[in-house]
Amino acid sequence: MKVGIAMVPSAQMNQYLVELQKEVMSFCSLRPLLGTEFNLPHITLLQGLFKNNLNWFNLISDLRDYCTQQKYSLEFKLSGLEYQPPGWYFLTLSPNIIFGEAHRFVFERLKDSMYLTEEDRQKDTTNYSTLEKENYFKYGHRYIGDAFYPHITLGRSIDKSRIQDEAYLINTVKVFTSNIVGTIQKITIYEMGENGSHANTLYYVNI
């Protein structure tokens, strides 16, 4: 089973993001459908396949304690929309040191446990940068180290192509996200679903 480690916004912010996707879905079909119990909006810190029986609860408890000790801000703003081929739409975040530091923390703990299957090695990485390809073929995840890219996935177009009326999409996101401040509420271990979604929460701690 592929799993991920994520930071999850407050229930209020998640509901807001679900409504944003519904608004976008009125003119563009995206997958997976975001929800408030399954397929949660989230910021992925790391994901993939991991060896051994890891103590996931201890990991996220330690991460919570680390972030608390460092007194990192838990607030963030959505700064815009970005397209990533093939077909991905990401909500970009205003800079916040907590995301990069949390990523570094979990990667250092888990890097020796990460692996790929032969099926994973057949994945099309045409659109990956050189560093993203190196990360993927070594660890099974593209956004690691200097390639780490904190974002919230709004969804992927069904035909994996760019939306023709992207200006309308960008404006819709801008209207929805103006003056909205989110707060990180949980750190989770999740079962990966469709398109790497936060399909099911396996463990969590409040932060």
Secondary structure: helix percent: 25-40%
H-E string = EHEEHEEHEHHEHEE
Overall morphology: globular
Beta-strand percent range: 25-35%
Overall pLDDT = 94
Structural class: alpha+beta
User: How many strand segments?
Assistant: 9
Can you summarize the main beta sheet?
A: 9 strands, antiparallel
Low-confidence stretches: none
Radius of gyration: 16 Å
What is the number of helical segments per DSSP (H or I, 4+ residues)?
Answer: 6
Distance from N terminus to C terminus (CA atoms, Å) equals 26 Å
Description:
The chain has 207 residues and is of the alpha+beta class. 34% of the residues lie in helices and 30% in strands. It has six helices and nine strands. Strands 1, 2, 3, 4, 5, 6, 7, 8 and 9 form a nine-stranded antiparallel sheet that branches. The chain is globular. The two termini are 26 Å apart.
